[in-house]
């Protein structure tokens, strides 16, 4: 007998153990500290509950992650069948994570032998999973939420850094059994750049749990606009502050990052009405988002931004810049508003158009977009089918 809400396992699959290789330098502690833990764990817990997976192991780069996982399980915040494999303390030094990323498939051999399928979380460190695939002959899904080499180029990184990411991508995609991207733009890029067959690359849009991220009937702030994200150069928050300064709105910023101090000082100097609210857990965002009418993401570039999807799923009028990732979600004057460029003037223009628009049609179209393209159920079905198909091929 199965529990309510689950389905029986495929009789051809006696067990299914997945190992997720965290991005190099990333840890469970980082997920918790940055508020993304609730969101990142969700898909694995759902796969465990519906029987697609029986056990999940996270190989991480945090030396204390096993202890953190124990506390999370004791408080009911982490599924009992998710096991965290931390980086040994001996590697906790400047270059230790690089060394560990190369040899962890050997150090964690007992765990890797027990697995049925490997998966990457992002590109940096994906070679760990490729090495494991060579040694243990298990199928590998190379999953990325964004294309690292494109981001490095947009960040004006050194040519060496860009080439290093390109090497990682070429190596990972060459030996992956399946590649998964979050956007059609990324799929087209890697198929062209690395001569990968389109049939081996899957677009699984980032998912939203619409049972949690959904509109709530309540009074909304009409004099405020909300931004959620990291405070770094990519997010272009300085231009957003300058744009909001010319409106009658105040700006509430949720998130942290290396530019917070600089942006706070800039806001004070300009006399802008900005509140820095800090980092909040993802589980608290639905309640926060539902207080607002307007959400804005003024990024210089994006992959497939989850905060935008979450805001749209909560019924906010969404505003963004016309860049890859954002413009795959927002259709100007259909389900949101796009600034023509990333300049403060064009961001201001998009805000003003949003304030003068027809909210109900925009909101309805946004909700339809989320339900059709970004539902958690759709993501689980697609990834579950891919996991089962790869396993059957390797039986």
Q: What's the SSE blueprint?
A:
Layout lengths: L16 E5 L6 H6 L3 H14 L4 E5 L5 H10 L7 E4 L10 H12 L1 H6 L2 E4 L5 H11 L3 E4 L4 H7 L4 H17 L2 E4 L2 H11 L6 E3 L17 E8 L8 H9 L4 E5 L5 H11 L3 E5 L6 H5 L2 E6 L8 H8 L3 E5 L15 E3 L4 H12 L3 H15 L2 H18 L2
Parallel strand pairs: 1-2, 1-4, 2-3, 4-5, 5-6, 6-7, 8-9, 8-11, 9-10, 11-12, 12-13
Average pLDDT:
93
CATH class of the largest domain: Alpha Beta
CATH topology of the largest domain: Rossmann fold
Share of helical residues: 40-55%
Radius of gyration: 21 Å
How much beta, percentage-wise?
15-25%
- Unreliable runs: 1-13
> What oligomerization state is this entry in?
single chain
Number of helices: 16
The largest sheet, given as strand count, sense and whether it forms a barrel, is: 7 strands, parallel
Order of helices and strands: EHHEHEHHEHEHHEHEEHEHEHEHEEHHH
Shape: globular
Number of strands: 13
CATH homologous superfamily title of the largest domain: Glycogen Phosphorylase B
End-to-end Cα distance: 26 Å
CATH architecture name of the largest domain: 3-Layer(aba) Sandwich
**Coarse structural class:** alpha/beta
Number of domains: 2
**Order of the strands making up the biggest sheet:** 3-2-1-4-5-6-7
């Amino acid at each position: 007998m199965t529990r309510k809400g689950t389905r029986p396992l495929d009789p051809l699959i006696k067990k299914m153990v997945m190992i997720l290789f965290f991005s190099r330098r990333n840890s469970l502690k980082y997920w918790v500290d940055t508020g993304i833990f609730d969101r990142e764990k969700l898909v694995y817990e759902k796969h465990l509950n519906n029987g697609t997976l029986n056990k999940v192991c996270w190989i991480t780069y945090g030396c204390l992650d096993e202890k953190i996982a124990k506390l999370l399980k004791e408080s009911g915040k982490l599924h009992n069948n998710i096991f965290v494999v931390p980086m040994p303390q001996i590697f906790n030094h400047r270059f230790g994570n690089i060394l560990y990323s190369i040899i962890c498939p050997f150090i964690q051999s007992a765990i890797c032998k027990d697995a049925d399928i490997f998966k990457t979380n992002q590109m940096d460190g994906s070679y760990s999973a490729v090495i494991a695939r060579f040694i243990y002959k298990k199928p590998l899904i190379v999953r990325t939420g964004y294309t690292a080499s494109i981001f490095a180029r947009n960040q004006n990184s050194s040519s060496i850094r860009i080439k290093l990411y390109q090497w990682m991508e070429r190596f990972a995609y060459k030996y992956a059994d399946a590649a998964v991207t979050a956007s059609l733009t990324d799929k087209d890029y890697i198929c062209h750049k690395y001569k990968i067959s389109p049939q081996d690359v899957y677009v699984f849009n980032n998912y939203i749990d619409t049972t949690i991220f959904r509109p709530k009937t309540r009074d909304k702030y009409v004099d405020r606009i909300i931004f959620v994200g990291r405070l770094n150069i990519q997010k272009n928050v300085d231009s957003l502050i300058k744009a909001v300064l010319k409106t009658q709105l105040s700006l509430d910023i949720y998130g942290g990052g290396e530019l917070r101090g600089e942006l706070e000082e800039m806001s004070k100097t300009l006399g802008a009405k900005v509140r820095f609210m800090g980092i909040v857990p993802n589980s608290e965002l639905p309640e926060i988002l539902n207080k607002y009418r307007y959400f804005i993401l003024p990024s210089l570039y994006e992959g497939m931004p989850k905060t935008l999807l979450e805001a749209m799923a909560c019924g906010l009028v969404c505003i963004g810049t016309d860049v890859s990732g954002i413009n795959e979600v927002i259709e100007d004057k259909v389900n949101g508003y796009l600034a023509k460029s990333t300049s403060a003037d064009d961001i201001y223009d998009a805000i003003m158009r949003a304030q003068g628009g027809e909210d109900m049609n925009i909101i309805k179209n946004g909700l339809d977009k989320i339900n059709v393209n970004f539902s958690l159920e759709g993501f689980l079905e697609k990834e579950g089918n891919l996991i089962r198909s790869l396993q059957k091929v390797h039986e």
